[in-house]
Amino acid sequence: MVPMEYYLLLSAAVFCIGVFGVLTRRSALLFLMSVELMLNAAGINLVAFSWFHGNLSGQAFTLFVMALAAAEVAVGLGIILTLYRNFDDIDVTNATTMRW
C-alpha cells in the first residue's frame, strides 16, 4: 500500500506548480491551465483523505470539483475569445484597458 503522505506530497507539488503558473504567466491559456492544476491538487487531497478515512464523501466532492473545473474551462474559453477579438492577443495584462 502507498502511504497517504505520498499522495499529500504529490498534491502539494501539483498545487505549487499551479500557483507558480498563476503568478508568473501572462498568457490566458497558461493561466487557466495553472488553475486547473490547483483544482486537480484539491481533488487529489479529497480522494486521499476519503481513502484514509474509509468513506466516499471525499470522492463525491471530487466529482463536484471536476464539474467546477469543466464549467471554469467553458467560461474561461469565452473570456479568452473576447480578449483575442478585442486585442488580437491573449495576454491578460492587456485586459486592464477593458475598463469603462
Bulk shape? elongated
Helix content: over 70%
Class, according to the CATH hierarchy? Answer: Mainly Alpha
Determine the mean pLDDT. Answer: 88
Instruction: Return the domain count.
Output: 1
Number of helices: 3
- Assembly level: single chain
CATH architecture identity: Orthogonal Bundle
The amount of beta strand, in percent, is under 5%
Number of separate strands: 0
Model regions low in confidence, pLDDT < 50 over at least 5 residues: none
* Terminal Cα span: 57 Å
> What structural class do you assign from the helix and strand content?
mainly alpha
How large is the radius of gyration? 17 Å
CATH topology: Helix Hairpins
> What is the helix/strand order?
HHH
The major sheet is characterized as: none
What can you see in these coordinates?
- It is built from three helices and no strands.
- It has helices spanning 4-24, 28-53, 57-87.
- It is elongated.
- It has a single domain, classed as Orthogonal Bundle (Helix Hairpins).
- With 100 residues, it is mainly α.
- Its EC number is 1.6.5.-.
